[in-house]
Automatic annotation (TrEMBL):
Coiled coil: none annotated. Pfam families: 3keto-disac_hyd (PF06439). The lineage of its organism: Bacteria, Thermotogati, Deinococcota, Deinococci, Deinococcales. Residues 1-19 form the signal peptide. InterPro entries: AL/BT2_dom, ConA-like_dom_sf. This is 3-keto-alpha-glucoside-1,2-lyase/3-keto-2-hydroxy-glucal hydratase domain-containing protein. It comes from the Bacteria. It comes from Deinococcus sedimenti. SUPFAM superfamilies: Concanavalin A-like lectins/glucanases.
Amino acid sequence: MKPTLLPLALLSILTAAVAAPAPLMTTPGPSLLSDPLTALSPAWQAAKGRWTIQDGTLRGESIAEQNHAATYRHALSFTDAVIQFEVRLGDARAVTLSLNDQGGHAARVILTPKGFQARKDDHDGPDRAAPFNDVQMPLAPGTWHTVTVEVLGPRLLASVDGQTAPAQLSFGQADLIASPKTNVGLTVQGGAASFRNLTVQSATSNPTWTDPAPQPAPAKTKGK
């Protein structure tokens, strides 16, 4: 039996690698960060919430008394990049990938059971949060989903599970997004979620890519 185990394991690894969705807007370059998130690491700072390893994957849980999302950050210097990770929402109300610069938040991708949205994030100074289009795409809480986030100059593109149709992409641009980033962060709001297989690669422009037509941003609700 032993001679067959190693080839099967290698086949499983190779299949998982092939299954990773290809970036759309960018061409990936050298690796900047690769972490399977199977163990807690001092390279990550758990600023809020409770972060543990459960069933071999990273689990973040918000703590109600803190009145803040669970936050887990890794220092990393980059400007243009392709970021991929897998997430299982669990009972969390929302999870985010946060991109931050020297002054604070620069961009964010928010995922909920109903879908996801990329946005220019709030920032100290004249800039304020500006959401891009919502993508209505049910994300089953008990299922692993692959998130791809691409940053190229002022442009930000988010997709989930390899979807490529314009209506399934959250895309926008803002000068703030082009700022040199200093760290990446994962957050969990209102419950617990799990993460695995986070990678960050430097990125250059994909010459075959055409920006999607602008999609409507979510309408503001009166009184909010």
